[in-house]
Amino acid sequence: MVGLYAAKNAVLVAAQLDLGHAATRLFLHMALECWDDWDNPGGMAPRRYFAGRESSAIALGFLAPDNGSDRAFQVVKRTVKELLTKGAIERVRSGHAGQTAEFELLVDSSRPPAVRRRLNPVVDLASKREKGVNF
Predict the structure, then answer these.
(1) 53: closest CA among 72, 66, 71?
(2) How many domains does the chain have?
(3) How far, in Å, CA of 25 to CA of 61, rounded?
(4) Residue-range definition of the domain harbouring residue 91
(5) 3-class DSSP state for residue 127?
(6) Given a cut of 70, is residue 110 above it in pLDDT?
């Protein structure tokens, strides 16, 4: 599944780590873009974000063509630094010409256990009535 469980937990982690507004916004974007588990079409590692700076800039409110500006990249760099410093993500690979940086999100993205509701037992009203119970 694409990032649903990672994103749900990212909200909690962002609050626990006291992330700023921009860092929380980018962190949630990263969580929604990553895979929750190994069961995905490309066999990609779960909780990995590898979109480029332009995509991160859009998540921070810079729309095209401003998402490719120096200012947008500075904001992305500062925000990623906060996420790294506070322990929300780890750098897996640095970006360079032709290859984007890759980060691992340090959140739980496992599917919660299924909760089974107990059904109320069927009450045999006829037998209760025969025993003298009035309703």
Answers:
(1) 72
(2) 1
(3) 9
(4) 4-112
(5) helix
(6) yes
